[in-house]
Amino acid sequence: MSIIELIFGPQHPALHEPEMFRFHVDGEKVIEAIPRIGYVHRGIEKLFEQKTHVQNIYLSERICGICNVAHTLTYVNVIERAGDIDVPPRAKYLRVIVAELNRLHSHMLLLGAVAELMGFTTLFMLIWRDREKIMDLVELITGNRVISAYNTIGGVRRDIDSDKADKIRKVLLKVEEEWKEYKKTWMEDPTITRRTMGVGILKPRDALKYCVVGPVLRGSGVKSDVRKDDPYEVYGDIPFNVVTYDTCDSWARYMVRVDEILESINIILYALDNLPQGEIRRPLVRRLPEAEAFAKTEAPRGELVYHLYSKGGFKPYRLKVRTPTFANILGATIMFKGERIADIPVILGSIDPCFACEDRHTIVDLRSGKSFMLSSREITRKFSRGSKP
Amino acid sequence: MTPLELLIFITQTLVFPGFAYLFLLALFTEWYVRKLAARFENRLGPTYTGPHGLLQPLADFVKLLFKEEIELKYADNALINGTLIILPALFIAALFVIPWLGFSLVSFEGDLILVILLTGISSGLLYAIGWFSKNPYSVVGAVRAISQYLAFDIPLFILLLVPAVITNSLSISTISHKLWPSLLANPWLIPVWALSLGLVILVEQAELEENPFSIPHAEQEIVAGYFVEISGRRLAFYDLARDMQILLAGSLIGVTFLGLTWNPRSPLEAALNFIIVLAETLLVIFELVLIKCVTARLRIDQVLEAFWTYVIPLSIFILSIAIIVKGGLFPWV
Amino acid sequence: MGLKPKIVEKVLSNLLKRPFTEQYPFEKPVIPDGFRGVMKLDVDKCIGCGLCSRDCPSGAIEMKKYEHANRSVPVFHLYRCTFCYQCADSCPVKAISMTPVYELSTPDPFKLILEPKPEEVKPRPRGVRK
Ligand code: SF4
Ligand code: SF4
C-alpha cells in the first residue's frame, strides 16, 4: 500500500478538543506526525492586559476548565509575589486541598478517557462514576463542580468546617479503596498492558531534550515535580512521594497518574488532619506596585508557569502563561514515529493533551498546504523557535 | 400446492419464522445488548421509549429511515446500496435455517455449511462497503476487516464442525436434537465439547468484531472504519444487519453447542422448544456482551498473531480429538 | 490471554446494583449549601457603591439609576454572568447572597436580567449607613 495521509482532527473521536494532526502512514505504520495547533486560540493573554488583577483570577481559570485550580493558584501566587502579600497558613492548606482534589479529578478524567480510547468502555464508565464523587466534593467545598473560583489574592474564599472535613475523608477513603482495584486493573489487565506497554517510547534523554514536563517526564523516569523541587504553598511540609516509572512508554505515563491519585488522596488526608486554625484571607489588594514576578506550580498535566510584569496600578502590563501541554506536544511527535495507527490515540492520550490551554499562545502555524513536506526536524526547530518566551 | 398450503407458506415466510419475526427479534437483540452492557457498566441504558426502553431500537431504526442520506460524489454509491441490501438478506437467509421451534422450515442435510458460507460472504461484503466508500478511514477499516477475515473464519468453521462430528450430522436441527444423547452416550466427548464451546464464543466475538476485536471499526482510531460514509437509510439497514448478525451468532452457537431441543409433536412442545432456543440465544449473547465489557481493544497484529499461532491450531486439535474419540480410535474408549 | 476475575467480578456485581445514573429532569440532584446559583440582591441593604459592577470579570452588572428614588442599584445580566460571586465578595454591606437555583435555560433572554422593580427601590434615608 502506498503512503496515505491520515488526518486526525480538528474533529475526531480520539480528540476531545479541536486540533489537527497529519499522520503519514504506510499501511498501519506511522512514518511521520505533524501537529497543527491554534484552532482554539482565544487571545487570553491580551485580554489579561485589559482587565484588573481581581477580574483576571476568573479569567485565568478559564484558560483550562479541567485544571482551573492550578491556573488560579499560579495566578494568585504570581500576584502575591509581585505585591508581597502574605497568605495565612490555613489558606495555604486549603489551597493544597482543593488543588489536589483538582488533580484527582483531572487524572481520573484522563484515565477514564484513555480507557475509552482503548475501547474499554466499562472501565471508562466506572472511573468516571468515581470521579463524580470527587466532583461533588469540589462542589461541597467551593460551590461549583468544575470551575471552582476558590483561590483569591491573599487567601481562599471559603472555609471548611469539621462536617465537611469528615465528609471529604469518608468519600476519599472510599475512592481510595476503589482506586486500588483500578490500579490492579491498569497493571494486570492483559488487554490494557498489551496496548500500552512498549508503545510510544520517550527516552529520558529525549524527554529532557524536548523539555517535556509533568507526568510525561516522570513516566520517562526523571524525578521532577515542582511540588518537591520548588515547593509552593505548604507542599514543603507535607510528606509525599514523587512517582516515577522508568519503562518510558505510554503505560508508564498512565501508571504515574494512577499512583499520583493515591498520593493525592494521602496529601489531602494529611492536610485535613493538620489544618491550622486562623483566618483564611487577607483584605483584598487591588493595586500592585511596579514589579516583575514569576510563579510555577505543578498542574495535573505538568509544570505551569506564569510570568507577570506590572507597571503599577490595577492592571498587569503583561502576563505570560506557559501551559504544560504546549511543552509536551513536541515530545509527542517523537513518540508517534514507527508506531501503528491503532496506537495513535493511546500515545496522544498519554500526554494528557489539553489543547484549549495550549492554544492560548499566539503561535499559529501558517504553513501552506504543500509545506508539510518539511522534515519533522525542521518542524521541531520551527516550533521550538516559536515557543521561546 | 393447494391454496391453503400456499397461504401457510407465505405466512411462514413473512411472519413466523420469517421477516416480521426476525425483524422484531433483531431489534429485541439490540435492546438486550444495550441494556446488558449498560447494566454491566452501572448505567441505565435505554429507558424512555416504551417499557424499559424496549422500543428504543425501533425508534432509532425509524428515525434513521427519515434522516438525510449523504452520498459522496466519488464513492460507488450503487455498489454500496446493493451491498447493504444483500447484507441483511444474507443474515435473514441464515436465520431461516435456525430451528426456532425445534424444527426449521428449510432444514436439509448440510444447512450448517450454508450458514457458514453465508457468514463468510458477509465479511467480504463489509470489506466491499469500506472499499467502495473510498474514504481513507473506510479503506483502512476495510483492509483491517479483510486481514482478520481468514484468521477468524477458519477456526469458526472448524469449531462449528465439532458438534457436527459429535452428532454425525450436518443439519443444524439434527445436531441440536442429537447433541445431548450423543454426548451422554460417549462421555469422553464432554471435555472436547466444553473446550470447543469456550473457544467458539471467543472466535464468534472476533467474527462479530466486538471488543477486544473491534479493530475494523475502532471508533477512536479510524472513526467508524468501513462504514464511516454510511448515513441515513443505509445506516438503518447496516444497523439492522448488525443486529441480525449478533442474533445469528447467538442462536447458531446456542442451538448447535447447547442443543436440548427435540422434534415437537404438539404445539405445546413447540412452544417449549422455542423458549429453550431463545434462552440459549440470550445466554450466548450474554457471554458475548460480558467479554465485550471486560476488555480493551487489541491491536490487529496482536490479534492476528494470537489467532494464527494459537487459536487455529487449537481448533484443529480439538476437531481431530473429536473425530478420534467419536470414531472409537482410542482403545480405551 | 489471562483471566481477569477482578474486573469480571466487578462487572457482574454491577448487574445487581442500582444504576448510578441520575435521571436528571425527573430526579433532582442534591445541591450542597453554598452552591453558587442565581444571586439575590437585597435592594434595601445596597448602598449603590458600584464595587460589584467594577469587580465583575464579565461585565454582567450594570448600575441602573432609579430617578424616583435618586439612587443606583445593580442590575444583573445573567446571560453574561459566570457565577464567580466576586460581586458578593466585593460588596461592602453583603447585599448580594446566593440561591441554589441553577436551571436557567430559557428561550427568552429578557428573563435573564435580574432587575429590581421600581416600586421595590425605595429612597434611602439620608445619612444612614448600615
Ligand atoms: S457572579 Fe461574577 S460574573 Fe456574575 S455578576 Fe457576580 S461578579 Fe459578575
Ligand atoms: S457592591 Fe453591594 S452595595 Fe455596592 S452597589 Fe453592589 S450590591 Fe450595592
CATH fourth-tier homologous superfamily of chain A: Cytochrome-c3 Hydrogenase, chain B
Name the poorly predicted regions of chain A.
Answer: 360-389
Tally of alpha and pi helices of chain B: 12
Q: Name the bound molecules.
A: iron/sulfur cluster
Largest sheet of chain B: none
What is the terminal separation of chain A in angstroms?
Answer: 43 Å
Uncertain spans of chain B: none
Largest interface: A-B, 33 and 30 residues
Helix and strand string of chain B, N-terminal first?
HHHHHHHHHHHH
Give the distance, in angstroms, between the N- and C-terminal Cα atoms of chain B: 50 Å
Give the overall average pLDDT of chain A. Answer: 81
Outline of chain A, from the CA principal axes? globular
The tally of domains of chain B stands at: 1
User: Helical stretch count of chain A?
Assistant: 15
DSSP summary, beta strand count of chain A: 8
Q: Write down the secondary-structure element order of chain A.
A: EEEHHHHHEEHHHHHHEEEHHHH
Q: Approximately what portion of the residues of chain B adopt beta-strand conformation?
A: under 5%
Level-1 CATH class name of chain A? Mainly Alpha
Question: What are the key terms here?
Answer:
heterotrimer, A: 389 residues, alpha+beta, Cytochrome-c3 Hydrogenase, chain B, three-stranded antiparallel β-sheet, 8 strands, globular, disordered C terminus, B: 333 residues, mainly alpha, 12 helices, binds iron/sulfur cluster
Structure in words:
- The complex is a heterotrimer of chains A (389), B (333) and C (130).
- Chain A has helices spanning 44-50, 53-60, 68-83, 89-117, 121-142, 162-188, 190-196, 204-209, 215-219, 226-229, 250-273, 324-336, 344-350, 355-358, 376-387; strands at residues 3-8, 20-26, 29-36, 151-152, 155-156, 288-299, 302-313, 318-322.
- With 389 residues, chain A is of the alpha+beta class.
- Chain A has one domain: Orthogonal Bundle (Cytochrome-c3 Hydrogenase, chain B), CATH 1.10.645.
- In chain A, the strands form three sheets. Chain A has a three-stranded antiparallel beta sheet. Chain A has a three-stranded antiparallel beta sheet with strand order 6-7-8. Chain A has a two-stranded antiparallel ribbon with strand order 4-5.
- Chain B is globular and about 60 Å long.
- By secondary structure, chain B is an all-alpha fold.
- The termini of chain C are far apart.
- The radius of gyration of chain C is 23 Å and the shape is elongated.
- In chain C, the strands form two sheets. A three-stranded antiparallel beta sheet of chain C has the order 2-3-5. Chain C has a two-stranded antiparallel ribbon with strand order 1-4.
- The model of chain C has no long low-confidence stretch (mean pLDDT 82).
- At the A-C interface, helix 2, helix 5 and helix 6 of A face helix 1 and helix 3 of C.
- The structure holds iron/sulfur cluster (2 copies).
- The site of one iron/sulfur cluster (SF4) has 13 residues of chain C, from helix 3.
- One iron/sulfur cluster binds at residues 46-52, 74, 90-91, 93, 95-96 of chain C.
